[in-house]
Write a structure and sequence with these properties.
By secondary structure, the chain is of the alpha/beta class. It contains seven helices and seven strands. It is about 40% helix and about 15% strand. Strand 4, helix 3 and strand 5 form a beta-alpha-beta unit.
């Protein structure tokens, strides 16, 4: 049996990945505040940035790891807020890093020692892991950190037959993006025109890339842009 452990699989890219892995015969475990609606998914609901919540689910995760031929650990959960280098309070930055960075570190530290050969650790980043735009300061800081985590994962796990990659979606038609834009349909339309195909990426397209990365260790240590060819300013 193969298992996919996906953070933030309650909606968007995570939910699409849960559906695809399930269709491919994987046991799927969702770690998020809300349950995933995909049939058959094991939901371990809670705040993954909480040490207490993580300790509560670790026995179940470790049991799944022991029973699996391979694991795809997909770090997908993320938080975004509007802020800038001038306005971001220390406590707000800490909260962002707890969810987007520290939770990743905690899961990795707990699970990597037990991952079987052939497993993957996949980070779902953002095009903002490689560049910056105004007024997304804490999110950009956290996504740049994820790039460093992925590259360090690759180097630290040399010879373990566990591979990793960072997938950087562009503007994707998700609940998180709509909420971030205050459900401004005009702005959504404007963003959709910022790539070669003049549309938003779909969560299912990103899910297909997640699956492909798990199946292809040749991409170990690679950054994969999934943005439909964004226009450069």
């Amino acid at each position: 049996m193969d298992t996919a452990i996906i953070t933030g699989a309650s909606a968007g890219i995570g939910a699409s990945a849960a559906l695809l892995f399930s269709q491919k015969g994987f046991k799927v475990i969702n770690l998020s505040r809300r349950p995933c609606r995909v049939k058959g998914v094991l939901n371990l609901c809670g705040d993954i940035s909480s040490k207490k919540a993580l300790e509560k689910v670790l026995p179940t995760l470790n049991e799944a790891v022991r029973e699996s031929n391979s694991i795809s650990l997909v770090h997908n959960a993320a938080k975004i807020r509007k802020d800038s280098v001038q306005t971001c309070a220390d406590e707000d930055l800490r909260e962002m890093l707890e969810i987007n960075v520290i939770a990743i570190n905690a899961l990795n530290r707990a699970l990597i020692p037990h991952l079987p050969s052939g497993s993957s650790i996949i980070y779902v980043g953002s095009t903002l892991a490689m560049k910056a735009v105004p007024n997304s300061y804490s999110y950009i800081v956290s996504k740049h950190a994820q790039l460093g985590i992925m590259r360090s994962t690759c180097q630290d796990l040399m010879g373990k037959n566990i591979h990793t990659a960072l997938i950087n979606p562009g503007f994707t038609d998700t609940e998180m993006l709509k909420k971030h834009l205050n459900h401004d349909t005009e702005l959504m339309t404007s963003l959709s025109k910022m790539n070669s195909f003049e549309r938003l990426a779909s969560p299912s397209e990103i899910a297909e890339i997640i699956m492909w990365v798990h199946q292809n260790p040749v991409v170990n240590g690679t950054v994969i842009d999934a943005n439909l060819g964004q226009k450069e300013n």
